[in-house]
Design brief:
8 strands, 14% strand, elongated, alpha+beta, Outer membrane efflux proteins (OEP), two-stranded parallel sheet
């Protein structure tokens, strides 16, 4: 019995420890975790790995290339060549000697028609093995390709940085949404508790004939509405938590604990409201600049196609022929061969095709330069808009705090007046609704500070995630 009690105690204690093992995150911890585990962030790092391999692929195309070839042929029916009979002494003996020498088919006639002799050259079975080394000596397209590969890698790294910023902003918004839902539930539960007490007190007063039935019904209407809002808030909190888990890259149904409060995060970013150069670190500007560099390289590539290209090669091999498949016999004789050379390709005339392609690349470069200018203006506008939204959020937050203090006093006065019979339940309900609305406005204002600050930080690239992916 004692042994069973010990086992049961250990089991229950272990179960409690397991149940208590929930992951907890501050906002910065959540961001750090998401940058490593978020699904989009993972694929962005893979894009960088692909770009690095693509860069090496471009580099390797200009390095020595070695290819091997093993060829085997079995001429089931050997081809026959016709030689003029006049080339030989036109006697039966001569024809016989020729036929014996070239191994003619036995059933052929001694003298072919129309003065030709059928001859079979070579052996029925042939094998060869060759190896070829090629080396690019000069090609303008290759040099431009190396530069383009570096530019593409820069673009991929900038795209990864943009992904990290978006993941960060998504985590901040998701974290704030969960805190908003929790704050909303706490407020509703407190209001419901207070209102239920009012309903009980009013019901007693009504039963004693000191209040009208309408007073009780008004409070019951408000209570029912709050309970519906609470049920909906609980459902929304569940969804908000699942969105938060998705942003972090963990299972949707895993329970996590958020260690910070909404009020602790609602600190204005006053230092971000006076930025002088929006494009200096902005990722979208860097990506647009990458596009311009790419278009410039494409123009350079089209121009380089008018230059000659030079390559060299060395070919070594061996071959043999047999009438029987005995290539692996030690007595089989193989005949070696080798050749080396260079190839110079000089573009001379293309009927204006290269010129047309060059002009297209030039126009594309001009378009990208215009897009870069447009991006610069759009970023400045986005900054001014985000700045205005953040200032509005700060103003709303300060106003909501003052309004909540006023609404609380008004609701408290109406509670006292209602209990003393100096005001109606309708007036009390109006004061309560005003209080509940102000409470929601305050937490919404706090969340707005958090999200608009994240927008400003993303535009200005305040975290600056460059070179952190490696």
């Amino acid at each position: 019995m004692t042994y069973r009690i010990i086992l049961l105690t250990v089991f229950l204690f272990g179960s409690q420890l397991f149940a208590q093992e929930k992951r907890s995150f501050s906002l910065e911890e959540a961001i750090t975790y998401a940058l490593d585990s978020n699904y989009t962030a993972i694929n962005a790092r893979r894009d960088i790995a692909k770009a690095i391999k693509q860069k090496w692929e471009t580099t390797a195309s200009g390095l020595p290339q070695i290819n091997g070839l093993i060829d085997y042929q079995n001429q089931i029916k050997q081809p026959v060549s016709l030689l003029p009979a006049a080339a030989f002494d036109n006697t039966a003996s001569t024809v016989g000697i020729v036929e014996d020498f070239f191994d003619l088919t036995p059933n052929m006639e001694a003298r072919p028609p129309e003065g030709f002799i059928p001859i079979v050259f070579g052996t029925k079975q042939n094998a060869s093995a060759t190896a070829t080394l090629t080396q690019l000596i000069f090609d303008g397209s290759y040099l431009v390709g190396l530069q383009a590969a570096r530019t593409f890698l820069d673009f991929t790294e900038n795209a990864n940085e943009k992904t990290q910023l978006e993941v960060r902003k998504g985590v901040i918004n998701a974290y704030g949404s969960v805190l908003l839902a929790e704050e909303g539930i706490a407020i509703l539960e407190n209001n419901i508790q207070t209102l239920e007490e009012n309903v009980r007190e009013t019901a007693l007063i009504y039963e004693n004939g000191l209040a009208e039935e309408e007073d009780l019904e008004q409070l019951q209407i408000t209570l029912g509405s709050l309970k519906n809002q609470l049920a909906n808030a609980v459902r929304m909190e569940k969804i908000a938590r699942q969105m938060f888990n998705l942003a972090l890259g963990i299972d949707l149904y895993e329970e996590v604990v958020l260690t910070q409060t909404l009020s602790s995060l609602a600190t204005p970013a006053l230092g971000l409201l006076n930025a002088t150069d929006v494009t200096e670190n902005n990722v979208d500007f860097k990506i647009a600049n990458n596009l311009t560099e790419q278009r410039a390289l494409e123009l350079k590539l089209e121009k380089s196609k008018a230059l000659p290209s030079l390559s060299g090669f060395i070919n070594v091999g061996t071959q043999t022929g047999r009438n029987e498949f005995d290539f692996f016999d030690s007595g089989t004789r193989w005949f070696a061969q080798s050749i080396a050379g260079v190839s110079l390709n000089v573009p001379i005339f293309s009927s204006g095709m290269r010129s047309a392609r060059t002009q297209q690349a030039k126009i594309a470069l001009e378009q990208s330069e215009t897009q870069l200018l447009e991006t610069t203006q759009q970023l400045r506008l986005a900054y001014e808009s985000a700045k205005s939204e953040h200032e509005l959020a700060i103003d709303n937050y300060e106003t909501s705090k003052r309004n909540l203090a006023l609404a609380s006093r008004i609701e408290n006065k109406n509670q006292i007046k209602f209990k003393e019979g100096l005001s109606s339940s309708f007036e009390l309900r109006q004061a309560q609704i005003q209080l509940y609305t102000t409470q929601q406005e305050l937490i919404q204002a706090m969340l707005s500070i958090v999200t608009t600050k994240a927008d400003l930080e993303t535009i200005l690239n305040t975290p600056d995630y460059r070179n952190t992916q490696n």
